Amino acid sequence: MSNIYTRFLKDESGATAIEYGLIAALIGVAILVVLQSVGTELKGTFTDVSNALKKRPTV
Questions:
Q1: What is the chain's percent helix, strand, coil content, to nearest 5?
Q2: Helix (H) or strand (E) run with residue 9 in it
Q3: How far apart are CA 36 and CA 30, in angstroms?
Q4: How far, in Å, CA of 44 to CA of 32, rounded?
Q5: pLDDT for res 59
Q6: Residue 56 gets which letter from DSSP?
Q7: How do residues 2-41 score in pLDDT, each as one tens digit?
Q8: What is the DSSP letter of 1?
Q9: In the chain, what is the straight-line distance between the N-terminal and C-terminal CA atoms, in Å?
């Protein structure tokens, strides 16, 4: 019985899975932050283009 308990205490596979999960979550948060920033800049660019086209005289 003590052999099973000792093996259980030395097993680190669960810790590795948790570390990979934390890394994946961190990467996901970083992607969301970047996409939100790019989306805001892109919206501003499209607004500028739209306003410039509205001011342009029609032919």
A1: 90, 0, 10
A2: helix 2-10
A3: 10
A4: 18
A5: 67
A6: S
A7: 788 788 777 777 778 888 999 999 999 999 999 998 998 9
A8: -
A9: 89
